[in-house]
Amino acid sequence: MSNMQLDTLRRIVQEINASVSLHDSLDIMVNHVAEAMDVDVCSIYLLDERNKRYVLMASKGLNPESVGQVALNVGEGLVGLVGQREEIVNLDNAPKHDRFAYLPETGEELFNSFLGVPVMYRRKVMGVLVVQKKEPQDFSEAAESFLVTLCAQLSGVIAHAHAVGNIDVFRKPSNGPSYKTFQGVSGAGGNCLRTCYRIVSTRRSHCDSRS
């Protein structure tokens, strides 16, 4: 990682440690990551195990009204692919991937570049961190390492929030979940997979917190 990324990492860790809630921590991370990586979107989806959904819990670049309201079924879309494989997914032409799901409710445009990293704690997927750009590009290994390191920090914060019951959106009210599950628009068939993306195994020592 570059010196700038290391400085950003230290600043994010300091601010997260000083934050008073999970939601504050997630907002801190998406805002700093979007700025540091110069991306159009940074989002965090957390796994709701009870309802088998990935819930959009924080985002810089998507419609703020969709945060806490939009969810993808486990295994749905590229977010579901990251969680299912427990691997980094790095795409330079995401809309062409057969697992791509476009959610117009988030106010997003069709972003070409996609980098998704699983957030894991003790070998268990807790969520997915995603960055996106309009311009087609293959994110560098340095960018991957930067997000993997951040996910290691984030995993402990999320695990603590689960332990103390501080993830409000997962508290199921009497009339069902507090969020909506939207039907995404699928991408193209699998005949373009070789040229559209590459999947890189996540290093456990970096992304899987065992503390």
Kindly state the mean pLDDT as a whole number? Answer: 80
Structural class: alpha+beta
Text of the CATH class: Alpha Beta
Major beta sheet summary: 9 strands, mixed
Q: Beta-sheet strand percentage?
A: 25-35%
Number of domains: 1
Low-confidence stretches: 171-211
What's the β-strand tally? 11
Q: What Rg, in angstroms, do the CA atoms define? A: 16 Å
User: Which superfamily, in CATH terms, is the homologous superfamily?
Assistant: GAF domain
Number of helices: 6
Pattern of helices and strands: HHEEEHEEEEHEEHEHE
- Which range best describes the helical content: under 10%, 10-25%, 25-40%, 40-55%, 55-70% or over 70%? 25-40%
Shape: globular
Describe this entry's structure for a reader.
- The chain has helices at residues 3-18, 22-37, 77-85, 141-164, 193-196, 204-207, and strands at residues 41-48, 53-60, 70-73, 87-91, 101-102, 113-121, 124-133, 180-181, 185-186, 197-201, 208-209.
- With 211 residues, it is an alpha+beta fold.
- The radius of gyration is 16 Å and the shape is globular.
- Strands 1, 2, 3, 4, 6, 7, 8, 10 and 11 form a nine-stranded mixed beta sheet that branches. A two-stranded antiparallel ribbon has the order 5-9.
- The protein has a single domain, classed as GAF domain (Beta-Lactamase).
- Helix 1 packs antiparallel against helix 2 (22-37) and helix 2 packs antiparallel against helix 4.
- Residues 171-211 have low confidence and may be disordered.
- Helices cover 35% and strands 27% of the residues.
- A hairpin with a 2-residue loop joins strand 6 and strand 7 (124-133).
- The chain is built from six helices and eleven strands.
